[in-house]
Automatic annotation (TrEMBL):
<feature type="transmembrane region" description="Helical">
    <location>
        <begin position="288"/>
        <end position="304"/>
    </location>
</feature>
<feature type="transmembrane region" description="Helical">
    <location>
        <begin position="310"/>
        <end position="332"/>
    </location>
</feature>
<feature type="transmembrane region" description="Helical">
    <location>
        <begin position="198"/>
        <end position="220"/>
    </location>
</feature>
<dbReference type="GO" id="GO:0042391">
    <property type="term" value="P:regulation of membrane potential"/>
</dbReference>
<dbReference type="InterPro" id="IPR006153">
    <property type="entry name" value="Cation/H_exchanger_TM"/>
</dbReference>
<feature type="domain" description="Cation/H+ exchanger transmembrane">
    <location>
        <begin position="17"/>
        <end position="399"/>
    </location>
</feature>
<feature type="transmembrane region" description="Helical">
    <location>
        <begin position="375"/>
        <end position="398"/>
    </location>
</feature>
<dbReference type="GO" id="GO:0005886">
    <property type="term" value="C:plasma membrane"/>
</dbReference>
<feature type="transmembrane region" description="Helical">
    <location>
        <begin position="240"/>
        <end position="267"/>
    </location>
</feature>
<dbReference type="Pfam" id="PF00999">
    <property type="entry name" value="Na_H_Exchanger"/>
</dbReference>
<feature type="transmembrane region" description="Helical">
    <location>
        <begin position="344"/>
        <end position="363"/>
    </location>
</feature>
<dbReference type="InterPro" id="IPR004712">
    <property type="entry name" value="Na+/H+_antiporter_fungi"/>
</dbReference>
<feature type="transmembrane region" description="Helical">
    <location>
        <begin position="66"/>
        <end position="82"/>
    </location>
</feature>
<feature type="transmembrane region" description="Helical">
    <location>
        <begin position="6"/>
        <end position="24"/>
    </location>
</feature>
<keyword id="KW-0812">Transmembrane</keyword>
<keyword id="KW-1133">Transmembrane helix</keyword>
<feature type="transmembrane region" description="Helical">
    <location>
        <begin position="123"/>
        <end position="143"/>
    </location>
</feature>
Amino acid sequence: MTETALNIILVVVGSLVLFLGIVSQLIRKWNFSQPFIALIVGFLLSLITSPVFNSGFWNHYLLQEAARTSLAIGVMGVALRIPYTYTLKNWRSIVPMLGIVMPFMWIINSLLIYWILDFSFLLALLMGAIMTPTDPILSLSILSGKLAKDNLPENLRYLISVESGSNDGLGYPFVLLPILLITCRPEEAISHWLIHTLLWEVGAAVALGAIIGYIAGYLLRTALSKKTIDQSSYVSYTLAMALIVLGSVKLLGSDGILAVFAAGTLFNMTSTAKQRYDEDRVVEGMDRFFTIPVFTLLGLVAPWQEWIKLGWNGLLLAFLILLLHRIPILFLIRPLVPVIKSNLNSLLAGWFGPVGIAAFYYAQFSIIQTGTEEIWPVVSLVICMSIVLHGITATPFTKLYGRLSSEKSKQNSKKSEQSQENFKKPEV
């Protein structure tokens, strides 16, 4: 990367983040999201005749690392925003979301790809796994802010956040299994997946991330009690912790994304409320700085020619995946998820399960591992459609949910009053 190219990138990134920060309230008022605007900016930049804005300038490794870093910051932000008691109190809702919904999403995605685009079954399994994780960054743009807090129940917002933060890391074994089946003999692939992937790359990642998060929280509390750390230092503490975990766990050959979420969760449990508030503000700002450019980068490297070749089948596939890979299963398992108490909640949680940076990262990872370039056009089309559809429906659907919930609450209250009247004893 030349010095000129680097400076151009810095100017574009800084200008975009600055602009989106200034008009953030207007964007939400216009029923858009910041990732949606960033994607459009990326599309427009791709029209400029400059090497920096040429998709060939960005190789798969650069794209993978950009997405990996953004994803790590995003899941750390999710871990800090969720009260540490929520996971323990609501594990009966979280377990079905990860243990039932995730495999269902993988199966539905894969079958739709196999049926509509006629790829090989193993390649369909791989692309289905890539698009299984729920994106925490797009989810945050839907679930955060005054509008969401005023209209959406807190427990449901936290459930979707926990799911998105967890399944980004848990998506790794789903992705790696078809990669191993494509690149190795079946018996070797299964053995490697069961022993190395699940036990070491997933199990060890959770353990190591949790240990680092606990130690980091303990050290911060000790430093604060002894007054050896100042305000300007500890507000960036979790950002540093996220980068340490991401890099060190990856060096050991484990899944760094899941480790970052585990570290953030344990750190959350060991820190005070004020520390979590201060750290959350810093991570929210850094989250915007790291993630907005990645959505722009996605628009910049969008494979338009390959999308055209996919034709209407590609658009049909993207729409059906977003419509069917969550909503049906959430209606079916609603009795198993106490937080989802109504069909309206099932519909909301089913629709707002966007495909985003996690799929971006796993797509680049899979292309590097298998050399299969056909992955990117399909995955990128689904990601972009998710950004557009979820971006323009977030505000109106949130308002509609709030209105319907309010009307239902009034109806239930009226029925309760009528019932009480009916059971009153007549006066003698």
